[in-house]
Design goal:
Largest sheet: 8 strands, mixed
Strand order of the largest sheet: 6-7-5-15-16-17-14-18
Number of helices: 8
CATH topology of the largest domain: FAD/NAD(P)-binding domain
Mean pLDDT: 96
Number of strands: 20
Radius of gyration: 21 Å
Distance between the termini: 48 Å
CATH superfamily of the largest domain: FAD/NAD(P)-binding domain
CATH architecture of the largest domain: 3-Layer(bba) Sandwich
Strand content: 25-35%
Low-confidence stretches: none
Structural class: alpha/beta
């Protein structure tokens, strides 16, 4: 019989979260083994629209994103592009949104408050029903695949090993270690990091643990080439849920379908009409655009009941840490989350308090407040 592969920490998943965690753990001198069912960034990460923003409403999310963006800005491989995020806020949400802006500024995020008329300098849109707009020029997007591969390279250089195209088929705790059964053989490690993305709930199931993460399909529609007066920042219309931004000469856009949950595959072209209807109400110029079906794509969000991530140790499961359930925020927050996970493993106080993202919150009443999802 072949002896199990031994490590100090087994990381399940090599998306941007798992790859970043592997690097931060390995640089601490820990023996790290990453098990990935496919290839790095082959799941939700590679299908992401790759937006990064610090315009959140809660302290923890603001800090996780701000510190992550700062790290991406220092990494040429990340493809960080500070094209800005423009949020279009309805009248009914404007008062609360202004409080969020105050918090963002207190935490070092240079968010601007704009009238709808002032925001037209960034994009042309119908201002009907808006109470105001906010813009942050350090928000933008990254190359999610390039970023992940940079973390993989750094992790390997620090000594981490990657078992790719390897599925985990069983997990149990025995003799003080997590024993993983995989398609490439057994793995043993006293510590396990669940960075399984949309599959994180199923990773928990393998160990008999409840991790409330499920997949939700998302569509990204791509236009043909457009002649626009200027590139569009990432724009999110909080009222309709429509988002869009420039991608070269084209525009990519989407809108979450709350009913599209579970392991559904392929493009849902029936969702195109309601998405375009909502989009054209705010951006009438889209009526002149063509659609490039071949350049459009779909992927999975990993969502939790409150659409917030699950980060940190799992009560009642010794040596199990979660870094999952980001609900569209994984690329935005991977860098900072990896530092937090490494600090928790080493027994150090995390540089950002992630208590609001601990899994035991689901036993509390009321549930944690949801944040902006795009």
């Amino acid at each position: 019989m072949t002896a199990p592969a031994a490590a100090d920490v087994a990381v399940i998943g090599a998306g941007v979260i798992g790859a970043a965690c592997a690097w931060r753990l390995a640089e601490r001198g820990l023996k790290v083994l990453v098990v990935e069912q496919g290839r790095p960034a082959g799941g939700s990460t590679g299908k992401s629209a790759a937006g990064v923003r610090a315009q959140f409403t809660t302290l923890t999310n603001i800090l996780l994103s701000r510190h992550s963006i700062e790290e991406y800005a220092s990494m040429p491989e990340s493809g960080y592009h500070p094209g800005g995020y423009l949020l279009l806020v309805p009248d009914t949400q404007w008062t609360a949104h202004q409080e969020a802006v105050k918090l963002q500024r207190q935490l070092g995020v240079p968010t601007e408050q704009l009238t709808p008329a002032q925001a037209q300098a960034h994009a042309t849109f119908d201002p009907g029903g808006l109470g105001g707009c906010t813009y942050c020029g350090t928000d933008g997007y990254v190359d999610a695949h390039g970023l992940t591969m940079a973390y993989v390279a750094r992790a390997r250089q620090a000594g981490a090993r990657f078992q790719l195209d390897t599925a985990v088929t069983g997990i149990r705790r025995a003799a003080g270690v997590w024993q993983l059964r995989t398609t490439a053989g057994a793995v043993e490690a006293p510590l396990l990091v669940n960075a399984g993305g949309a599959w994180a709930g199923e990773v928990g199931d393998l160990a008999g643990l409840t991790i409330p993460v499920r997949p939700a399909r998302r569509m990204v529609f791509t236009t043909g080439p457009l002649s626009l007066p200027r590139p569009l920042p990432m724009i999110f219309d909080l009222g309709s849920g429509v988002w869009l931004r420039s991608e070269g000469e084209r525009v990519i856009l989407g809108r979450a379908d709350p009913a599209d949950v579970g392991w559904r595959e392929g493009m849902d072209w029936t969702w195109l009409e309601p998405t375009l209807e909502a989009a054209m109400a705010r951006f009438p110029w889209l009526a002149e655009a063509t659609l490039d079906r071949r350049a459009s794509w779909w992927g999975y969000y990993e969502v939790t009941p409150d659409h917030q991530a699950i980060v940190g140790r799992l009560p009642g499961a010794d040596g199990w840490l979660n870094a999952c359930g980001f609900s569209g925020h994984g690329v935005m927050q991977a860098a900072a989350v990896a530092r937090v996970i490494a600090q928790e493993v080493m027994g150090e106080p995390p540089f950002i308090d992630v208590t609001p993202l601990n899994s035991d919150r689901f036993a509390r009443v009321p549930a944690a407040t949801a944040d902006i999802q795009v």
